[in-house]
Amino acid sequence: MNNQPVYIVDGARTPFLKARNAPGPFSAGDLATAAGRALLVRQPFAADEFDEVILGCASPSPDEVNIGRVAALRMGCGHKVPGWTVMRNCASGMQALDSAIANIQNGRSQLVLAGGVDALSHAPLLYSDRMVLWFARMAQARSMGQKAAMFAKLSPAALLSPVIGIMKGLTDPVVNLLMGQTAENLAFRFGITREQMDEFSVRSHQRVTAGQDAGHYDNEVSPLVGRDGKVYPADDGVRRDSSMEGLAKLKPFFDRKYGNVTPGNSSQITDGGVWLVLASEEAVKRHNLQPLGRIVDSQWAGLDPAQMGLGPVHAATPILQRHKLGLNDLDAWEINEAFAAQVLACIAAWQDAAYCKDELGLDAPLGALDESKLNVDGGAIALGHPVGASGARIVLHLLHVLRRTNGKRGIASICIGGGQGGAMLVETV
């Protein structure tokens, strides 16, 4: 990154709403628009003064494919403000921030609205290839006899067994593994037990509960109001009664015979949206803005898709090296909790001499991360993981943590389906 600072001025998000086996009350467009309006109404500049709007989304609906532009128009940014959409799986929201950084630093933009959204409860059910082929042949049939013959060939099983879109999306097509199966790989590699996973998950719920009660989310969460007038004031996936006894009753989901990754020690399927206002130094002065902090550095990394959960290690380590920092020289960390096993594996990898040497090219392990600095208000196991939104959420929340605790620097990092990792170093101002 060049020397021109990029400031985070403000941010807001919707409550993260847990998917409950049916489409939720809000589409991705609804979520993005609601979060954006709540954020823009408190800014000292008009919505049409943005140079661009960038939104990360992993699963936009067919009628909102360029959801960044759709949301920009619905938020009142006007016809002249370009809006576009980025997709880097779980880090789509972080990619939106990084794209904004690049354009600000090369002088193409001064003031950018960037964030992420996904409404995973609205992921589609799809026809199988067999059923699509039947429809195609039916469309080619001309006579009533031909059409009747096609109906005689129709299999009720083909019609009534749709492809679950979210399961396809969460399966890596290169290694043919569900994301949860990659977490099982990491648990095996580093000897992470079911008890350790469940302990981590209980702690996530406890920390979110404590954070909600202490008002630690109040500055970033803006309530939603449904079309029926129902108010959604807060993240609703947290289980205040989460316990080791309760989690022990859940069966492994991804490897039913030998595995330990369960729905209880995995992130939740969730709907949510988040926006951040990014500004150059010139824009900060022009509008007399009061930034929360600035993004100092960012990094992307690639690794084996079957080990994708270690992406934060591969992305954050080069940042630490560039800035001559140790793991615990930072005041706070946010590592997105895709799975308990995945975060625990990242912690283990930094302590593993062989991994650090063979995979990271280090002379020695980086050591043990102080877990009292990690996800201090809980994470996606309790809050949920709207894939396109999470990368932006952890950056925003990290800055709030640093300001609340009088900290100076922190790293937000996330694993990415397909075998990647992303990380950002931020500091308060």
Count all strands and give the number. 16
What class would the helix/strand composition place it in? alpha+beta
Helix content estimate: 25-40%
Number of helices: 16
Q: What is the annotated CATH architecture of the domain at 177-216 and 294-428?
A: 3-Layer(aba) Sandwich
- Form type: globular
Task: Please summarize the sheet with the most strands.
Answer: 10 strands, mixed
Q: What is the CATH topology classification name of the domain at 177-216 and 294-428?
A: Peroxisomal Thiolase, Chain A, domain 1
Instruction: Give the N-terminus to C-terminus distance in angstroms.
Output: 18 Å
The CATH class designation of the domain at 177-216 and 294-428 is Alpha Beta
**Rg to the nearest angstrom?**
22 Å
CATH homologous superfamily annotation of the domain at 177-216 and 294-428:
Thiolase/Chalcone synthase
Which stretches are low in confidence, meaning pLDDT under 50 for 5 or more residues running?
Answer: none
Strand content: 15-25%
- Mean of residue pLDDT? 95
How are the elements arranged and paired?
Elements: E1 6-13, E2 17-18, H1 28-40, E3 52-56, H2 67-74, E4 83-86, H3 92-105, E5 111-119, E6 125-126, H4 129-140, H5 144-153, H6 156-160, E7 163-164, H7 165-169, E8 171-172, E9 177-178, H8 179-190, H9 194-213, E10 224-225, E11 231-232, H10 244-248, E12 270-280, H11 281-287, E13 293-302, H12 311-322, E14 332-335, H13 340-351, H14 353-358, H15 380-383, H16 387-404, E15 409-416, E16 420-428
Parallel strand pairs: 3-4, 3-5, 14-15
Antiparallel strand pairs: 1-12, 1-13, 2-12, 5-12, 6-7, 8-9, 10-11, 13-16, 15-16
Helix pairs in contact: 1-2, 3-16, 8-13
